[in-house]
Known about the structure:
Layout: H1 8-11, H2 19-32, E1 38-41, E2 44-47, H3 49-57, E3 64-66, H4 72-84, H5 91-117, H6 131-139, H7 143-162, H8 164-171, H9 179-183, H10 190-201, H11 207-255, H12 263-282
Parallel strand pairs: 1-3
Antiparallel strand pairs: 1-2
Amino acid sequence: MQKIIIDEEFKALLPPLDPLELEGLKQNILEHGCMLPLILWNDIIIDGYNRYAICTEHDLPFNIIEMEFKSREDIKGWIIDHQLARRNLTSMQNSFYRGLRYNIDKKTHGGIDRIFENTPRGHNDPLGETTADKLSDRFNISPRTIKRDAEMANVIEAIGRISKDAKQEILLEKTKISRKKLRGLSDASEHEITEIARSIEDGTFDIEELRIKLESQSDKSSNTELDSNDYINDIVRSLVTPIISAANSFGANLQNLKQNSNSNDVKSMLRAYIDDLEKLYRGM
Length: 284
């Protein structure tokens, strides 16, 4: 029997079925068999995860089709294109997959894009097309929208790395957050992204309330840091004079050493100097 591999990176690109859809697929396969083949690449599933799980659980036969790709990036592009061809995607999912497609293509052709984005070109110059231009023509939306979709996709992916459930809540539009507000989180810290993901998970998500909460936490952190800095500055100011005084005294004693002085005399002076510093240390 052929060994079939589950690749989590490829699987994460596919939207999970909701419980009703999954149950419907299961009943259909149990009644009529697995009519659609699994799509594989080097024994790795790239389409048909749910069908494979159902057939494996119930010991049912299935067919496979092996496809050839040059790279993993090509496979990701194929998976995304396959999803964009579906008619039942939410508006958020459409934007998300367009953004992912841009990011993948940009990664492959980024150097070319940087050249053309900074080079004047005519309207009829096909060689000057950037990734955004090509996807704009393909999806019949503006290059600017494509780039915005990419920014939004990056944020959703970051949330997904914290919580797969939170990611799906956004993509299925069960969590109310606009594309604009998602893009506004592109500069959010890891802590902010984690807070957002967790609040979506537990059903308490409110972007405005969360922003206020995070800003308040940031202010408290800043105040604590300022208080800490003030404390350090006070210590430094209190130590400067006695340290300089001790050092000057030690230097003067060294200069006043008599010709018949020996190493024990120097050690004694150094010990006195160290004792002065230790007193300052213990007094901090």
